[in-house]
Amino acid sequence: MNSPLLEKISQPSDLKKLSGQQVVQLCADIREFLLENVSKTGGHLASNLGAVELTVALHRVFTTPQDEIVFDVGHQCYTHKLLTGRREGFAKLRQLDGLSGFPNPNESEHDAFISGHGNTALSVAIGIAWAKKLRGEPGQVIAVIGDGAFTGGMVYEGMNNIGGLDNLLVVLNDNKMSISKNVGALSRYLKRLRTTNRYFDAKENVRGFLDRVPVIGPPLKMTIHNGKTLMRRALYHSTMFEDMGFHYYGPFDGNNEQEVEQILRSIHKQPGPHFLHIVTKKGKGYAPAESNPGNFHGVSKFDLVDSIPDPEVAPKESFSNVFGNVLNKEGTTNEKICAITAAMKYGTGLQFFAHTHPKRFFDVGMAEQHAVTFAAGLASQGILPVVCIYSTFLQRSYDQIIHDVNLLNENVVLAIDRAGFVPADGETHQGIYDPAFLSQIGIPTYSPSNYAELRHWLPVLLSDEQKGPRAIRYPRGGESEVLAAYGCSGREYDHLYTAPDAKAAFISYADEVEDVLCAAKLLGEEKLPCDVYKLVKIYPFTDEFIKEISRYDVILFAEECVACGGIGEHLEAALYRSGWKGTYIHRAVENLRLPHATVPQIKEATGLDAAHLAQTIRETVKGETVS
């Protein structure tokens, strides 16, 4: 695009030189830039389109990095990145060696904190604000939080501990959505604040009267305009936020830059803590995203003209939708089954169950801890809850899994979506921890590598024969054609590939099986025969499996999981306890700061691609040196 005005903005200080008319034009240019670039690279679109004016106003009033802006989740940070010297980087947004999709201090001094998960910004901002006070440093701390984040309890823990901080501003970016539509009492409360007519009716009556008063009417009108926050507060009486210790302002039109900037300048002059409530339109400026913001929350590349994105909503052919359809079918025959998700109904494929069994479907908002303990409560009363959460978010509920589910052996099924490596979103969204933390407390875990296995094992885990907590995990997107061809044997493990006279074996699970198959075939061409085993039940192991693989001299276990505490470490211990004397190699994720890249690129970076795995066996068997 050709935007001379936008090209002149290389640092936030450049914004302060613009006239009001130029600011309006800049906001339009930013929207056009975001649409053009995100349609080519993919990324979070609707949330960023809605936050343009807010971000411009923040940078017009405050001065980063002295003033620090902490974004909750960070789905709305693209305008911030654009205004802080990273315009050229958008060509490689969420790609290897390119811009992160989230704020990250390692990328820019203007990014206060890494922001990949929700509900965290207020606690972080309170910490930064106190640090400033303890060191006697100037500057404000601004936490930008979407209304979806207010469905998570950590926000209220932070609000309860603001401690009269005079350098803190919380901005509620209220767009009536997180990813899926917001639910619950807080959503209804914010809606009441947004839609009450008393203030707006009174304001229009006063305006109309003053317009008819000669001489003194216009000055009085301006005075009242500047004091409208007091008027609003008088009419609303009090708010929950004021009761928590904030000075509350709002709601304001968050897509009116002049209005937002004006109130920010007023707030900036007063000691805090302040709470600014603005209402924005998610997807603002792009009609398809405005009408369907959920579909345009996170998109892959798409055509701006045809506007058919590959959205965050699970595609028709995906593990998520296979899971959702199977669960829906099982829910029809077993009325004890309930489905629970944390603001991810469509992303997890639960829209089918929600439509067919609405009374047994629960979207608890961005509250993973509550989701798990809620499930434990249901299970204690004979209900069979299925808690479906992305792997990267399930780790937020680990205490609840340990204490509320596992100690009492409650009958809870954990359905773990986006397990293993996840493309583009980088270190904040990887599904590489759940095998380690679930196996640590002995929860049986299944990891199907294709749709057929998911369709077979999910009903098994939902059957009355199963007792206690158990988990089934599956990757983002669709199945591999290579792994789909193997179908489902119904066994907990499979001997997939047999090479004559093999003394070495590869073992893996889920998507990584394709890489070990490829590695075995590469070595077979070099007359280094290797067998391949695939685990479906990845933990605990059966005695039969340990006995069968003990005949190999060399075993390499590869997994898209953290190395420390991973399934491979459990297998090594089990083998040596059984008396095995061979050479064991564990290949997993050692460096947890994974790049935002494609899955093949992540595998290459972690040494979990076929070439690296084959070379490891080659070195072990032949003693060769890495070339």
Automatic annotation (TrEMBL):
Pathway assigned in UniProt: Metabolic intermediate biosynthesis; 1-deoxy-D-xylulose 5-phosphate biosynthesis; 1-deoxy-D-xylulose 5-phosphate from D-glyceraldehyde 3-phosphate and pyruvate: step 1/1
Enzyme class of the recorded protein, top EC level: transferase
Cofactor(s) required, per the database record: thiamine diphosphate; Mg(2+)
Reported function: Catalyzes the acyloin condensation reaction between C atoms 2 and 3 of pyruvate and glyceraldehyde 3-phosphate to yield 1-deoxy-D-xylulose-5-phosphate (DXP).
Recorded family membership: Belongs to the transketolase family. DXPS subfamily.
Keywords: Isoprene biosynthesis, Magnesium, Metal-binding, Thiamine biosynthesis, Thiamine pyrophosphate, Transferase
Enzyme Commission numbers on file: 2.2.1.7
InterPro entries: Dxylulose-5-P_synthase, THDP-binding, Transketo_C/PFOR_II, Transketolase-like_Pyr-bd, Transketolase_BS, Transketolase_C, Transketolase_CS
One cellular component term from this protein's GO annotations in UniProt: cytosol
Binding positions for Mg(2+) per the UniProt entry: 147, 175
Subunit structure: Homodimer.
Origin: domain of life: Bacteria
HAMAP family listed in its UniProt record: DXP_synth
Transferase is among the record's keywords: yes
UniProt name for this protein: 1-deoxy-D-xylulose-5-phosphate synthase
Keyword match Hydrolase: no
Protein species of origin: Faecalibacterium prausnitzii
One GO BP: thiamine biosynthetic process
SUPFAM superfamilies the UniProt entry points to: Thiamin diphosphate-binding fold (THDP-binding) (SSF52518), TK C-terminal domain-like (SSF52922)
PANTHER family in alphabetical order: 1-D-DEOXYXYLULOSE 5-PHOSPHATE SYNTHASE-RELATED, 1-DEOXY-D-XYLULOSE-5-PHOSPHATE SYNTHASE, CHLOROPLASTIC
